[in-house]
Recover the amino acids of this structure.
């Protein structure tokens, strides 16, 4: 059974502040790490797919880093806005297998 | 069109009923997935179809039966379900499979009474 852990479980952040959260995953047999944003009553939306150790990806105010040797990824949000409120899920694929193993997510609430 | 559609949005069924969930995409994706998500838990992979062939079945009970009639369509046939099968069922697709990003539908909320 693959263990994908996310912390914290939930986070309240003031509008305009920056924040980050963590995903840890098995460091052996790594293939890819995905980040998704899931807003209530909507479909999960892909943010990043990272495959190489040291990868850094950026989309607007959101960025992510990847360390496959130690088995963790960070997601950063700069200058949080109310529309960033969502659950952020990371998902791991190992050994070339298809399908994703998800973490439980970080529930982010941005307070105006 | 970057959308994955799922029907119905909500489904209530009895334990003796037979019903089907439908998922459709027109992005030319060749990998399609079923996930099950129970409250306060992450989505769990059920089935993977790759080029219309079942490639992964994550030890799912036989009361769930997937079908991929063509590259755009994925069904999940349900029969003799149990109340504990009540969950959100998510469909996703990706271009060729891992590590391509997956596009998710909004899900079908299933309640088994």
């Amino acid at each position: 059974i693959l263990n994908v852990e996310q912390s914290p479980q939930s986070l309240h952040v003031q509008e305009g502040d920056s924040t980050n959260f963590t995903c840890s995953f098995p460091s052996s047999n790594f293939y890819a790490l995905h980040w998704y944003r899931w807003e209530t009553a909507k479909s999960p939306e892909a943010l990043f797919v990272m495959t190489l150790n040291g990868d850094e990806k950026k989309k607007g105010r959101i960025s992510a880093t990847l360390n496959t040797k130690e088995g963790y990824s960070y997601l950063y949000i700069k200058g949080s806005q109310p529309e960033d409120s969502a659950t952020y899920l990371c998902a791991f694929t190992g050994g070339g297998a298809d399908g994703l193993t998800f973490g439980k997510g970080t529930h982010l609430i941005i307070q105006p | 069109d970057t959308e994955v559609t799922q029907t119905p949005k909500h489904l209530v069924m009895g334990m003796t009923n037979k019903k089907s969930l439908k998922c459709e995409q027109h992005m030319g994706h060749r990998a399609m997935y079923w996930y099950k998500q129970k409250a306060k838990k992450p989505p769990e992979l059920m089935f993977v179809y790759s080029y219309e062939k079942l490639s992964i079945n994550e030890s799912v009970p036989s009361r769930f039966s997937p079908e991929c009639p063509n590259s755009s369509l994925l069904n999940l046939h349900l029969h003799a379900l149990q109340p504990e099968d009540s969950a959100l069922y998510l469909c996703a697709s990706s271009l060729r499979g891992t590590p391509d990003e997956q596009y998710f539908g909004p899900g079908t909320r299933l309640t088994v009474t």
Notes: The longest strand of chain A covers residues 30-38. The two ends of chain A are 40 Å apart (CA to CA). Chain A is about 0% helix and 55% strand. The mean pLDDT of chain A is 94.
